[in-house]
Amino acid sequence: MLSLTSERSTWMHRLPAWAKLAALSAATVALFRLPGPGAAALALAGTGALYLSGGAAFAREGLAPLRMVAVFAALILAWHLWTGEAALGLMLALRLLAAVALANLVTLTTRFDAMMALLVRLLSPLRWLGLNPARPAFAAVLVLRFTPVLAEKGARLAEAWRARSPRRPGWQILMPWIVMALDDADHVAEALKARGGLPDDL
Amino acid sequence: MEKDYVLVVLFTALVAALGLVPPITLMSGVPITAQSMGIMLCGTVLGARKGALAVLLLIVLVTLGLPLLAGGRGGIGVYAGPTVGFFLGWLPAAFVTGLIVERLRGLPLLPVAIGAAVLGGIVVLYACGAVGMALVLDKPLSGVLPLLLPFVPGDLIKAALAGMITAGVARARPDSLLSRRARA
After folding, report:
1. Considering Cα of A101, then A59, then A80, then A145, what sign does the dihedral take?
2. Could you tell me the residue range of the domain that residue B154 belongs to?
3. Whole-model pTM?
């Protein structure tokens, strides 16, 4: 598991993790209440401005992890153009981009240990019940890492399907998707074992 | 140890990722968000305890404010909405689904998994969901249940898919099928 945190220090790196996560949650909730493509475009522009506030090099670095989701957004847009719902498609695509870019921004500017420390602090009351808070905290970090990877693999399978079929991808890609995911889990479990097993403390 | 832990975490992420996937549109044009199928899979593949654990992890993360529910929803706001019963009902739904697959170990997996997904992922889940909806909307249970009926066909398809995927996992990656793993 490589760190996704940017080495280029920005003002956002210095904010506490809880503040960034709270802002991300609020912003994401707001994103899904946007009225139309104009507002979604504004939200995406605002996200871009945040990236640029960290400097041009930082913004360029932030673009790379967006490549896959950009393809996905383009597919969504193309599909809605085809069905004659251009405005809806534009909003969905812009919103997806803005949501992923914002979430990536938190990852780019927050070190894993800061994220974990926050979760351990939130879970520390569990010690009263005899549970080690390091386990669920590490699980939470793994979920945050797994989720976009799984979504990207799903998008890639959908893309492969579209390349070969005029029909929409559907349930047919579920089985290969699950098998890919199970194999990923095996690899992560092996890697964890090789690094001395599950963490007892963070 | 590590494998079971990572699998539980993987299924939490799987349900979250299914919420990001745009709704799969089946033949009739009925959009189906796949997230509740993920809940069924937690039970059929991981079994009762670990399946429920995966769902619990998701519930905690969503409560802390991560937008992992379909449509990017999350946060404390979920608890005030009409879907709160379904959200919390995921926990018993996955548990019951897993319990059935574990207990009926002697019977063939495909029909058992489909039946378990129907009982846990539809009957148990709708019961919890209806109670939550009745509480939030301040309506009697009898007034809420008809509102849920349109979702039954889609969820039956999801249960069938969950069963088929579970049988597929048993063939392709039998070691990962924790609900029916040979006892050591």
Report:
1. negative
2. 2-180
3. 0.71
